[in-house]
Amino acid sequence: MLLFLLMAQIILLATQVRRPDTATGESMSLVRTWVVQIFVPGEKAITSIGSGIRNLWKNYIDLRDVREQNEELKAQLDRLRLEQVSLAEDAGQARRLQALLGFKQKFISQTVAAQVIGSSGTDRSRAFIIDKGSKDGIKVDMPVITPKGVVGKVNKVFSRSAQVLEINDATSGAGVMLGRSRLRAVMRGTSSGIPEIMHIMADEKIETGETVVSSGGDQIYPPGLPVGFVQSTAPDPEGGPFMVVRVKPAANLDKVDEVLVITQVSEKEPQYPEGPNPLRAADILAQRLPTVTPKPPSKPGAEPPPTSVLYATKTPVPTTGQSSETTVVKKKPVESLPAPQSAPTATQQPAVESGEPSVARQPTEARQSPPPVPTGTESPTSEPKNAKAPSVTQAAPPKPAPVENAQPQENPR
Amino acid sequence: MTTITYTSREEIEVHRFSALATIGIPLLAIFFQVYVSSRFWFLRLFDIPLIVTVFFAVSRRNQLAGMVTGCSIGLVQDALTHLPIGIYGISKTIAGYAASSIGLKIDVDNPGSRFLMMFFFTFLHDGVYFIVSRHLLGIPADWRTLHEFSSALANAILGVFLFALMDRAKQR
């Protein structure tokens, strides 16, 4: 009886006393710390012995089939090389577009490999213990992954071990995004171990097998990590407006041996090395736009050639206060279209696209200086900078008169 | 003349265990549960610490001993989960108390009664666990009848064999 009372009081004390962890700053109950410290060394020892024996056996098996595997791998390598060529083109284009859009990417910059040495022993708590702890840089809420996908997050950290909570536990959740429909939602675990995506309207079209990736909205898992696949969809059993989307985790959560703990995620803009003549969006855009041939008049006062090309001449505008001249676009009847040039000048391109004031600048510039070399380095985004340069459009009044003049039909002469 | 009935204390065998068995068997059971089930997920269906709890309770036939055994094993099991400490503790304390109480009344050495006993105590244990976790602590948990039935059946079958194995550690 005395022993019982003492034991009860010790257990009661140990349950209440919480020892602060210097690494994580969180407190941990003494009972939990003691139990884990008792069980972890044994689990580590058995795991290392078991893996040693397993590796010895595997090495022997591997040697037997190595020739066949070599042939298969060579054939696979040839196939992959072919695929790589096409994928490299796509990737290059994607990188250029990303750089243009100024995307910020989250890079997994540091991971720690860990081995699973034990579990909670029950499916009521889908958690396992890894052999890395606070001394290895592990902290609470760090994401845990395998090459196949997300496994879970670090839940508790001890000095040389840590507890990982799987994403399919009933108390677990993650921000996810559906791969095809791009719907963002919250995924939560269930008692049965099959995670479900919540609060998706019943009229959304979600297909079975659709990939589910992390959205990054939970501030734990970096965006884009594979989480799983849509296993099934069903109407809300409670009759609500939502549907139940069950997800099959990408990683095999029932048998996890080794995991990667993401210890550092950096956010930076992608930087890609550019060649001597980098291809820019303006160039691509210019190539797709219709070609306009500039034909400035041979003499300053002469009539322009009979084409359908839009061009501008200086015309006095008495109503403007700041400037005595502005640009007027004229249109002449079409007699014969000139042969299209190989590449348009950058100064012509916005004229066709948007009718900005700089549209009318080109013939004037052409009179003042030789025609610009079609380098294609001017882009629509560089228009404000050009507008500051001394040009006709800068001298024009701030009223959008040139823009109106850019509409040939509205400005008959 | 003394009459001996099936309820008399003289008829009931009260077993004792060495300190090594008292501490070693529960620890080994928990270790096996947490280590092996991480390799073989289907072993999570079993609850070997519960089998050990029931075995010690019915063998000692002492309600206090049954409670302490269940409480200790349950608390250690709790510490290895991510849930609050005490859910398994309460469940196994009640299971230990009930098992030691039954051990005073029926023959617990028969394999058939051991099977039925383990089947019943697994349901009792899981029911208490569900009530405590869901209704006392508000932890999201569902009662899965088929799963609980499978677990009870698996524990009952395994219990028959483990009881026979652990009988060797008994001391009179």
Note the topology:
The complex is a heterodimer of chains A (413) and B (172).
Chain A: H1 2-16, E1 18-20, E2 27-29, H2 30-64, H3 66-101, E3 105-119, E4 127-130, E5 143-146, E6 149-157, E7 162-166, E8 173-178, E9 184-188, E10 196-201, E11 211-214, E12 226-235, E13 242-249, E14 258-268, H4 281-288, E15 311-316, E16 325-330, H5 349-353, H6 361-368, H7 383-388, H8 392-395, H9 401-405
Antiparallel strand pairs in A: 1-2, 3-4, 3-14, 4-7, 5-6, 5-14, 6-7, 8-9, 8-11, 9-10, 10-13, 11-12, 12-13, 15-16
Chain B: E1 16-17, H1 19-39, H2 48-60, H3 63-79, H4 87-103, H5 111-136, H6 145-166, E2 170-171
Antiparallel strand pairs in B: 1-2
Helix pairs in contact in B: 1-2, 2-3, 2-4, 2-6, 3-4, 4-5, 5-6
Short summary:
Chain A is α+β, with helices and mostly antiparallel strands and 413 residues long. Chain A contains 9 helices and 16 strands. Chain A has a 6-stranded antiparallel barrel. In chain A, strands 8-9-10-13-12-11 form a 6-stranded antiparallel barrel. A two-stranded antiparallel sheet of chain A has the order 1-2.
- Major sheet of chain A: order of its strands? 3-4-7-6-5-14
User: Main interface pair?
Assistant: A-B, 41 and 35 residues
Percent in helix of chain B: 55-70%
Mean pLDDT of chain A: 68
Pick out the low-confidence regions of chain A. 304-413
Given the helix and strand composition of chain B, which structural class is it?
A: mainly alpha
User: What is the helix fraction of residues of chain A, given as a range?
Assistant: 25-40%
- Biggest beta-sheet profile of chain A: 6 strands, antiparallel, barrel
Stretches of chain B where pLDDT is under 50 for at least 5 consecutive residues are 1-10
Q: List the total number of helices of chain B.
A: 6
- Biggest β-sheet of chain B, characterized? 2 strands, antiparallel
SSE order of chain B, as H and E? Answer: EHHHHHHE
Strand content of chain B: under 5%
Counting helices, strands and paired strands, the structural category of chain A is: alpha+beta
Q: What is the H/E order of chain A?
A: HEEHHEEEEEEEEEEEEHEEHHHHH
Total count of helical runs of at least 4 residues of chain A: 9
- Tally of DSSP β-strands of chain A: 16
Q: How widely separated are the two ends of chain A?
A: 113 Å
Oligomer: heterodimer
| Overall mean confidence score, pLDDT of chain B | 86
Neighbour order of strands in the largest sheet of chain B: 1-2
